[in-house]
Sequence to fold (225 residues):
Amino acid sequence: MVPRVAHHLRAAGAQVTEFHDDVSRTQSANLGAIVSFHNRQTRDLDVSVHFNAFQRTDGPRGTEVLHRNQATIAARVSRAMAQAAGFINRGAKVRTNLSFLTRTSKPSILLEVCFVDSSADAALYNRHFEDICRAIAESILNRTVTPSPSPEPPLRPTIRQGDRGDAVRELQSLLDGLDADGIFGPKTTTAVRAFQKDNKLKVDGVVGPASWGALLAEDSNDGTT
Fold:
């Protein structure tokens, strides 16, 4: 979500710096890293993206935005997310005990996009992901953002029997009945040839752009991406 919201903000001319903490191993280290990074930047607003959890349920829970002293923008962003996805709007909520809100030196808001343990919220999130991302960007800027196309998926390398690695593992995960061991052996070649034949592609056992495109399109249609 963060890269996609940032994409919409940049497309609208805003300067955006993303921060992803992939190294901290404790909550205190994580919070310290986040706050320290933000306070080193020249910026107007700090935004932290979170997802709520409370108790597993099939019913809807909703979206909300936490803040310490930014009621107007918090309410606007919460309302925008609710309208974009059909979430219950829990609104802007004051929190004075959260490090991100109290220790950052600029105005800050913390988004609780939806409840991940609510199947209703999760379904809305998945169905309206792009609308939510654009709504967040628009409500932060307080103006309309022209819809921007989804980024193209990264190019996959051409692979064949004898190759190894993550691309082979991804290929195997997209084909039925294969262990994703990352080794392009005879079984993988047989499965690739069968897939190519079924999809009227050149049957050569080599996975290039055409085969990758067909594999990824089928996976998307199956709802597994």
Remarks:
- The chain has a mean pLDDT of 92.
- The chain is about 45% helix and 10% strand.
- Strands lie at 46-52, 63-67, 89-94, 108-115.
- Residues 58 and 119 are 5 Å apart (CA to CA).
